[in-house]
Amino acid sequence: MSEEQELLAKVENQVLWLTINRPDSGNAITPDVRNRIIDHLGEASGSLDVRSVVITASGEKHFCTGADLRAGAAAAPPPRPEGVPERAAGDAARMIRTGIQRLIGGILDCEKPVIAAVNGTAAGGGAQIVMACDLAVAADNARLIQVFVRRGLIPDGGGAYLLPRVVGMKKAKELVFFGDDLNADEAERLGLYNLVVPNAELEATAREWAERLATGPTRTIGFAKRLLNRSLDADRATLFEEEALLVELVTGTEDCSEGRASFIERRPSEFKGW
Q: Which residues pair with 121 in a beta bridge?
């Protein structure tokens, strides 16, 4: 399979579908796949033709099992002076910052709503992708695993930041310390998934949600996403100030004018996305 085929990207009805297509490797992501997802998300933010995004994967067994540790680096490293050790201090931290953290940041910062359609096991970095997405629909066979402790590692990809914000600190520590599998129903109960459906209904359900978002006031949803993502980090005064500024920006959009007009005229809104 060529690198191009390992991530499938298409736009349908103003929805960008990103499908990790490495089922024989647990849909683990290579540096190339990771970078292409980041690029697509960045382009989606500025595209008026894309109004929502779905991240999913091929097959029915794995959504994403994190980074493919067998894959090589995305680019050859620069020449190193003679005598330098194979890994110098700071190399691993840089790899995390420019790798999985950049991917998770790309999802959180995308100006369009991003849905995870979880078709199977999401482990390690794959679990962090699910948490970073704005909404998550899962097949009933999906599992979510903070697998790091099984390898003697701590969570990367923002796991220690995202997980307590969803499930609370005590539960987050339980999931991280033990690394146990979460089945779909338990993950939904904890708020990690919005909805669990039979596997055969996953794509249709994700499509319904994504296309519904794609007919909404896109800029408004993007600003709401930004405000909500900031809400657990900023103090009240800062968030209130940002809220006021974003409300002012929203009221200048054509979709906001359409929303007011449709209310007055007692008709359905027809949002354009700007």
A: 62
Answer yes or no: do 243 and 163 share one domain. Answer: no
Contacts of 226 (CB under 8 A, 6+ apart): 111, 246
Residues 31, 159: one domain?
A: yes
- The pLDDT of residue 1 is 67
CATH number, position 89: 3.90.226.10
Number of domains observed in the structure of the chain: 2
Within this chain, do residues 195 and 144 fall inside the same structural domain, yes or no?
yes
Alpha-carbon distance 110 to 213, whole Å?
Answer: 14
**Structure confidence at residue 74 (pLDDT):** 55
Q: Enumerate residue ranges in the chain where pLDDT < 70.
A: 1, 72-77
Segments forming the whole domain that contains residue 256: 218-264
pTM as predicted: 0.92
